[in-house]
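Customer ticket, subject: "Can you confirm the structure for Ribose transport system ATP-binding protein?"

Message body: Hello, I'm evaluating your service for our small team and ran a test protein. I'd like someone to confirm that this is what the system normally returns, since I don't have a reference to compare against.
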Amino acid sequence: MSGSEVGRVVLSIGSLSKTFPAQKALDDVDLVLRAGEVHCLLGQNGSGKSTLIKILAGYHSADPGATAVLNGTPMALGKAAARERSVAFIHQDLGLVAELDAVDNLALGNRYAGRWWLSGRRERRAAARLLAEFDVDIEPGRPLAAATPGQRTMVAIVRAVAATCGAPALLVLDEPTASLPQHQVEQLFGLLRKLRDRGAAILYVTHRLREVFQLADRVTVLRDGRRITTRPVGGVGGADELVRLIIGRTPAEFSPPLPSPDSEVLLSASGVRGEQVADFSTDIRAGEIVGVTGLIGSGYDQALGLAFGARRRDGGEVRLEGRAVPDGRPDRAIAAGLAYAPADRKRLSTIPQWTARENVTLPRLPAAGPARWLGGRLERREVRPWIERLDVVPADPDRLLGLLSGGNQQKLVLARWLRVDARVLLLDEPTSGVDAGAKASIYDVLAGIAARGRAVVLSSSDAEELCAVCDRVLVMRDGAVRAELAKGELSVARIVSETIRDSPDDTQEGWHS
Ligand SMILES: Nc1ncnc2c1ncn2[C@@H]1O[C@H](COP(=O)(O)OP(=O)(O)OP(=O)(O)O)[C@@H](O)[C@H]1O
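Agent reply: Thanks for trying us out. I re-ran your input and got the following:
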């Protein structure tokens, strides 16, 4: 890109507001995106980021009065950008087909977009050229099911770029790294930098503040639907200042838990196997917070579900305080004092048509009797402190869960399991999609649980999180625990290197559903 183009205004939005029936999600927001910049859009859960993107994508309409100019031409917000061939969106659901290879996935949606997609052979050549051009190291003819999550994200980006005939003016990404391990994040950043250097404006939504300093040129912070600031990353003092800008106050200090004493074993897993797990064996002691990590395909994201009995075990034994936890009987596991929150909380365990309070208090429903409305006042009293503690927006226990932002739904379903007083709490990716302020509160709650002599085991792909919160971390490779890092040995670099060590081939990782 020629120097003169850098900084050219690609998209300028003015006076953007969005009012939902009971909620103003965006309030008079201005935003200017320039050629050759990665622009991070930051804000707490519910601050309006997705709404802004959905308006750009044409999914929602804006309130009257908003203006938008794309590449010098005025456009109607809410419809036109979606059809603009120069704008590309990467949503969290990448919209790829696992059974098809990279070439066919690239062709999906592009087949009729440009003449060069018309013949099969030329399609293949064009696809291979595109993948090579963006350094996406993937075998074009293999089903994407065999690719890593990072490779799949990159295929989705290349596909979106192809739809703009290879030169997007604007690329919009909604939390693309939410489920990527660290080294694949680096590869993705390489691709994004390449697009930026070619002159694309990149609007990037993330809750991972480290990424802001690694990747962004400028940041815009939304709070309660209003734009709080837009500034160059160099003008932000550091992560602490960014958190202050995002949550509007200094976050409560999170003090890491004390190293666990040599206490009694609460949970003991030996030889647990099933799905991609060949041998999950560990002892978890009272007062501990233990992390489990690895690459997708290593089994780290299935181990806790198997231990709990939510996934079918092929063998092995789990004991809670000496008593066997039977396979496939979540009811017995819960009764014994084990609780488990799966990663895909929204899909697996929420009822969107029920209120926030009903979703949080769900595990106690049978005791409350069949008429769930009877418990309303009690439920509100119980749920309110959690709403405050985890900064759920809007702070209304009677709001239907399905109308809350994704992150706020996550917080509430997590609250459900934090509030049941389990002896051992098993959590898959507890803070995925959760904003920085609430993350600190969740860590605090976990530390409190451990301090009461309970234990927490969490699986996470976020090495920073593991360092911040865990007493020790188990690293899984090829279906078994291959390394155990004690508190003093925990660092992002160490976790990443243990995670990828001896990994036979990146492409062996399975499809992440
Ligand atoms: N369809 C809807 N109806 C009513 N309210 C909505 C709707 N969609 C979003 N909201 C509300 O608008 C506000 C902004 O939500 P939005 O999804 O934009 O937040 P976000 O910043 O993307 O949050 P997250 O980080 O959790 O994804 C929230 O308070 C949410 O409850």
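A couple of notes from the result: Residues 20, 23, 25, 43, 45-51, 393-394, 403-408, 435 surround adenosine-5'-triphosphate (CB under 6 Å). Confidence is low (pLDDT under 50) at residues 112-118, 365-374, 503-513. Feel free to reply with more questions.
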